[in-house]
Amino acid sequence: MNIPRFVIAGTSSGVGKTTIATGITYALHRRGLRVQPFKCGPDYIDPGYLSLAASGYCHNLDSWMLPEGNLKELFSYFNRSKDIAVVEGVMGLYDGHRKPEGGGSTAKIAKIIDAPVILVLNIAKMSESAAAMALGYCTYDPDVKVSGIILNQVGSQSHLRSAKSAIEERCGVPVIGYLPKTANLTLPERHLGLVPVAERGGGKSFLDELGDLIEEHIDLDQLLDLARKAPEFTLKQNAVLFPDHPISPRCRIAVARDEAFNFYYEANIEMLRAWGAEIVNFSPVADSILPAGTNGVYIGGGFPEVFLRELEANLSMKRAIRDAVASELPVYAECGGLMYLSQGIADFRGNRYEMVGLLPGYCEMQNKLQRLGYTKATALKSTPIAGKGQPIRGHLFHWSKLDEPDQTVAAYQVTDPKEQLEGFVLGPENNLLASYLHLHFGSDPRLAQKFVESATHRK
C-alpha cells in the first residue's frame, strides 16, 4: 500500500509542532490534496486543530495503548482514500513511557509506520549550536529517519544562514523551511493545554494567515517529495479493529458533543459505527432531551468546569440521563463525563454546581494537576464495554478530585502506576460506567464491539 507520509516531531514540547503541523496540513489541503492528519499520543485538543485544517477528522496514534498491529491497521484504515498522511508528534521526538516495555514516543510511532521525520527546532537563542542539537536527534536512534528540518523563531536572514549551513554541513539533512520570530500565531491555552476548537469558533482567518506563512517560508514541494519517497506500507495481521464486511446499523448511540464535551478519540466513534452503531450527537449544554431512539449514551471528556452554570440549569437533560440509566440503557462516561454525572462540581473558587447526581460526591477542581499518565487496570465487573477481569490500558489527565470509590461500586483495579480503585459501575444492571480513565478502543477490539452489543440489547 502506497501511503505518502511524514512525521512532524520536535526537540521538546513548546517548539511549535502544533502550529507548524496545522499550517502544513491546511496549506496542503488548500492545494487540493486529501490530507489525513494524525496526532501521536493521548491528546484531544491538538487533533481538533488538525481536523479543522484538513476538513476531516484527525486520529490518534499511540504505541503504548495500542499493540503495534492494531496501530498499523488503524493507520492503514484511515488512509484508504487519502493522498498524504501528516503525523504530528508528542513532546520531544524520543520522549515516551520509560517503563521496561517503553512505547508512546514519536520516534517509536515513526518506526512502526516507517515514516520520514521532519524535526522542528526552536533556534530563538542559538545559531550554529542548532547543528549540535540537530546532530544529536539525527543520530540518537539510527532507525529513526530524520529527513528534513524546520527552524522556528528565526530572527533574521543572517540568523537563518548561520543555523541552516551548520545543520546541513554537520547532519547532511536539508533545512526545508523556517518560521520567523515575528510570526504572531500562538494558539490560546488553559489548564489542560490549548483551548479546544469547539470553543474558538470557525478559525478560517487564522488558518488562512497560517497557511500563507507556511507557503512563504516552507518548501512544500520538497516536503511532498520526501513524503512520497516513504517505503510501501505493509500490514502483517488480519483486521481486528474493523469488521471485514459492512454491518448494517443495529442500534443508536448518542454521543455528547458540544463546547463542554468534545474530547474523543475519533477512532472510537468510527469503530462503534463500523460495528453497527448509528451515531447521533447531542448537547448536554443546549438540548433538553436525548435523541429519539437512543439505545446507549457516550459522554466523553472536555471542559464541563467552564460551563457549570449552563449544565446546572439544564434540568431536563439531567433528568433524561437519569431516566436512561434507570431504563437500563448502557451509559459510558469518561473524565469530564464522570464529572457531569457526579452529584456536582466545585469550581476553582469552591463554588458548587449541581450536576446529574448519579455518582456520589462532588468533583472539586484543584489548582494543580491530580493525575497524569498511562495507566494499567483490570475491570472488576462486567460493564457496557468490558468483561470482568479484562485488562485495560488507558490514560489519566485531570485537574479535578473525587473521592475514591469503594470496592462495591469500583469499576477498575488500577495496577500501574500505583494500585488504587478507579471509576464507578452503577445502575440497575451495572449499565452505567463512569471513570476518569480515557480509553482508546483500538487498544482492544472487544471494547467497541461490546458497547455496540450492549446498546443493541436495549432496543
TrEMBL record:
Site (Increases nucleophilicity of active site Cys): 438
Residue span(s) of domain CobQ/CobB/MinD/ParA nucleotide binding: 7-192
A GO MF term: ATP binding
CDD domains attached to this UniProt entry: CobB_N (cd05388), GATase1_CobB (cd03130)
EC number: 6.3.5.11
GO terms, biological process: cobalamin biosynthetic process
PROSITE patterns from the UniProt entry: GATASE_COBBQ (PS51274)
CobB/CobQ-like glutamine amidotransferase domain residues: 252-444
KW Magnesium (keyword) present: yes
Domain of life of the organism encoding this protein: Bacteria
Catalyses which reaction(s): cob(II)yrinate + 2 L-glutamine + 2 ATP + 2 H2O = cob(II)yrinate a,c diamide + 2 L-glutamate + 2 ADP + 2 phosphate + 2 H(+)
Cofactor(s) listed in the protein's UniProt record: Mg(2+)
Pathway stated in the Swiss-Prot or TrEMBL entry: Cofactor biosynthesis; adenosylcobalamin biosynthesis; cob(II)yrinate a,c-diamide from sirohydrochlorin (anaerobic route): step 10/10
Keywords: ATP-binding, Cobalamin biosynthesis, Glutamine amidotransferase, Ligase, Magnesium, Nucleotide-binding
Similarity comment text for this entry: Belongs to the CobB/CbiA family.
Function of the protein: Catalyzes the ATP-dependent amidation of the two carboxylate groups at positions a and c of cobyrinate, using either L-glutamine or ammonia as the nitrogen source.
Free-text domain note: Comprises of two domains. The C-terminal domain contains the binding site for glutamine and catalyzes the hydrolysis of this substrate to glutamate and ammonia. The N-terminal domain is anticipated to bind ATP and cobyrinate and catalyzes the ultimate synthesis of the diamide product. The ammonia produced via the glutaminase domain is probably translocated to the adjacent domain via a molecular tunnel, where it reacts with an activated intermediate.
Any further remark recorded for this protein: The a and c carboxylates of cobyrinate are activated for nucleophilic attack via formation of a phosphorylated intermediate by ATP. CbiA catalyzes first the amidation of the c-carboxylate, and then that of the a-carboxylate.
Protein name (database record): Cobyrinate a,c-diamide synthase
The organism of origin for this protein: Dehalogenimonas etheniformans
